[in-house]
From TrEMBL:
Belongs to the NAD(P)-dependent epimerase/dehydratase family. This is NAD(P)-binding domain-containing protein. Residues 89-297 form the NAD(P)-binding domain. One of its GO terms (molecular function) is oxidoreductase activity. One of its GO terms (cellular component) is chloroplast. InterPro entries: NAD(P)-bd_dom, NAD(P)-bd_dom_sf, SARED1-like. Pfam families: NAD_binding_10 (PF13460). It comes from Microthlaspi erraticum.
Amino acid sequence: MAMTTTTTTTLFHSLIPINSYKPKAAAYSFVSLPRSSIPSSPSSLQFRSLVSDSTSVYGRRKFNENLRRLSVTVSAAGATEPLTVLVTGAGGRTGQIVYKKLKERSDQFVAKGLVRTKESKEKIGGEDEVFIGDIRDPEAIASAVEGIDALVILTSAVPQMKPGFDPSKGGRPEFYFEEGAYPEQVDWIGQKNQIDAAKAAGVKQIVLVGSMGGTNINHPLNSIGNANILVWKRKAEQYLADSGIPYTIIRAGGLQDKEGGIRELLVGKDDELLETETRTIARADVAEVCVQALQHEEAKSKALDLASKPEGTGTPTKDFKALFAQVTTKF
Ligand SMILES: NC(=O)c1ccc[n+]([C@@H]2O[C@H](COP(=O)([O-])OP(=O)(O)OC[C@H]3O[C@@H](n4cnc5c(N)ncnc54)[C@H](OP(=O)(O)O)[C@@H]3O)[C@@H](O)[C@H]2O)c1
């Protein structure tokens, strides 16, 4: 098809020449806990001292008191319950990877997905916990968000290429959005519907993937189909930041279908990374950052631009706590 830049950077950014992509302007219960699994000191020391003191009435009272205290201590130190996470756009290119990563880490997560069609559901395994629904319809979202702890939003309006483009004749393809599936309906109303539904369901964190470029109203992506996609995405990001729900907004650079985990990730703010040579990122890396954002307090109530150094330069990012700690911006 028409994209001739790289085969892996997809439409959203590949139709913009690289140089023009710049902004201008625990829960153990004590009774069921085998002694061998009690964490070593100070809890095990505490356990021995309370047992030896349990023969007198005073000692028994003290024993019970200590037992309660120890139980609380062990609870806090023990394994936490897996987080139930819904990924929307779970049939999309990044959404699929996030959903798979969550499924693979079943000790930490219970994965749920929301997709638009039966075909998308089958594509990601057709599991019972994959809901089919359209985010433009609030009712379709309500059942999917029920009982979840966190939401990862990976839905987006997707531009279509106008038929008749012949790459052999040169020039650029033209794009359009289908009626009813413009960024205003999907990236604004659809995202807002998800945030509202999550809030009503008592969701504790929302991770939203957006795009770099939103500080520039004249960004070329806004002219695709004359639909202001970055403007509507930004409006949804603002709505999330104002929602009162702990959030992480990830504004990705140009997405590439490349292997993840092998590059140094870069975080930034206010589209500053777009002024540099490092403004792309593998979808697999974006997906990992989404998953890690669910596990680190340092990621909460922050917005970050995300790109990576080219493979072979820098040190592949492994410490996500430190990565999120670098981010100082709330929006
Ligand atoms: N492409 C880039 O270079 C680039 C750069 C920066 C940021 N981004 C952003 O990064 C995010 C992930 O991008 P991606 O390329 O991985 O996404 P993608 O493959 O385009 O996936 C978008 C998903 O949204 C779903 N969707 C669209 N309208 C929907 C609706 N009304 N109801 C329910 N689901 C709906 C689509 O469902 P179907 O599968 O049924 O169509 C699709 O699964 C997007 O927000 C994108 O804008 C992209």
